[in-house]
Amino acid sequence: MSPRSKEQIEKIRDASISNILEASLELFAIKGFDSTSISNIAEKAGISKGLLYNYFSGKDELLRALIDQLNESETNLMSQILDDDPRKTLENLFSAFFYELREHNQQWVFVTKLAVQVDKFDFVRALVTEKYNSYIDLFDQLLNSIGLKNPKGEALLLAGMLDGIGYQYLMIQDKYPLKEIENYLIQKYCHNEIN
After folding, report:
1. What's phi and psi for 49, nearest 5 deg?
2. For 62-71, how does the pLDDT look when each residue is reduced to its tens digit (9 = 90+)?
C-alpha cells in the first residue's frame, strides 16, 4: 500500500472535522452544551477522543468553530439574497428564513439554546448583538426604500416577529402555520403598498 498523498490526508482531515462539527451540532441541540461531553461527541462522530483532540482543544473551541461555520453559511446565503429591488430582497429574506427554519431545524434549536445562555459566552453575546444590529439596519434600509413612514420602528417590529416565529415554530413544530405566515409576510411587505 502506497503512502497517502497530501491531498488524501487533507480530505480525511476535512471529513473528520466535518463529522465532529456535525456531531457537536446535533448533541448541543439535543443535550445542550453543558450536558454534552467530548466523549459523547467523539462517539457520535465515529472517532476516538484522542483524534478529536488532534483537531480541537475542547468544547469551547468546538463551539467557536461551529458558530464560525454557521456564520460563514449565513454570509454565503446573504450574498444570494440581496437584489437591486428592495421588495425582492425582502421576499428573498423571508423565503430564506422560513426555508432555514424548516430544513435546518437542528441549527435553530442549537442557536436558541445558546441564546438563552448568552451570559455564559461573551463572544456569543457580541456576535448576536452584531447580527441583530446588521439585520435591523438592513430591514430599515429596505423598508425605507419601499417608502414606509417609520422604517426603523417597522424594522424593530419585524425582527421581533421573526424571532417570535422561530421560537413558536420550535415549540409547536408541525402544528404551527409556518407556510401561512410566510405567505402573509411576503404579501404584506413585498406585494402590497404598506405605509
Report:
1. -60, -40
2. 999 999 998 8
**One domain for residues 118 and 163:** yes
Q: What angle do CA 5, 23, 38 make, to 5 degrees?
A: 95
Contact 128, 116 (CB under 8 A): no
112 by Cβ neighbours in 10 Å (0-12 / 13-18 / 19+) ranks as middle
State the pLDDT at residue 24: 93
Model confidence over 51-98: pLDDT tens digits? 999 999 999 999 999 999 988 988 888 889 999 999 999 999 999 999
Answer whether 169's CB lies under 8 Å from 101's CB: yes
Is there a single domain that holds both residue 91 and residue 49?
no
Find the mean pLDDT for residues 18-42: 92
| Cell reading at 97 | 428564513
Residue with cell 405567505: 183
Q: What is the rounded CA–CA span in Å between residue 33 and residue 59? A: 8
| DSSP H or E segment with residue 61 | helix 59-81
What kind and span of H or E run contains 155?
A: helix 151-172
Per the listing, cell 422560513 goes with 98
Total residues belonging to the chain? 195
pTM exceeds 0.85: no
Q: Report the CATH number that the domain containing residue 22 is assigned in CATH.
A: 1.10.10.60
Domain shared by 50 and 95, yes or no: no
